[in-house]
User: Fold Enoyl-CoA hydratase from Rhodococcus rhodochrous J3.
Amino acid sequence: MSYIDYRVDDAVALISLNRPDQHNAQDASLLQDLDARWQEAARDDDVKVIVVRANGDNFSAGHDLKTVAPGYFKEGKTTLESAYGWETEHYLGFSRKWRDVPKPSIAAVQGACVAGALNVIWPCDLIVAADNTYFSDPVVKFGVGGVEYHAHTWELGARRAKEMLFTARKLTAAEAFDAGMVNRVVPLDELDTQTMDLAREIAQMDPWGLATAKRAVNQTLDIMGQQAALQSAFDIHWHGHANALLRTGYPLLTPGPLTSKTKTKEENS
Assistant:
């Protein structure tokens, strides 16, 4: 079963997270299907713009903490190499790939956009948020310094990034717009319509011009050190895993479902 809906409409690829009963929580299958659809849209010459959206009330509650991905285990045991490798590919790696797809991309976001959901929207070129959206990265609560694609500083600026992380406070759509993280805030019932209008407008532009404009901006960020900073922050993130396991019992690297205690720590994230 795929947790991703995919269709192409007027040169726009619509990639929809489709696990609404779980608030589009990201398990291994959802992430792998999402990446496959990104790559399909990238290869399709008829696709000029990519829109990432979600069915249901919430864009995504982040990582699915009720399961541990099989890739964390090697020969039935969790190893640092297997777990680090899986997260490198599925979290930081997928986000980097999506960011560098040479076609404009737009994230259309509503409701909750929490922790691992930021790994999905921040690689997109533009973000359109419904007015009921909030953004949150509350993982400092259980001893981790932020999600894997640690673009907080680039998206919000240093001081707002620190406040978001230090307090675990929810950032409203209006606040995200003021910080420059979000391009547009629209009424919830107009989110899909206004996002598609923007996508169709962009799709009228020359494809090579769009690709080179995107590459120029991304390379400027890279020259400023964005990619090196993301890798460094990801490695620091792994110190957080060890701290969380020791201090809060968060069983990231153990098989089986989470305990009720641990789910309570994460239920608002």
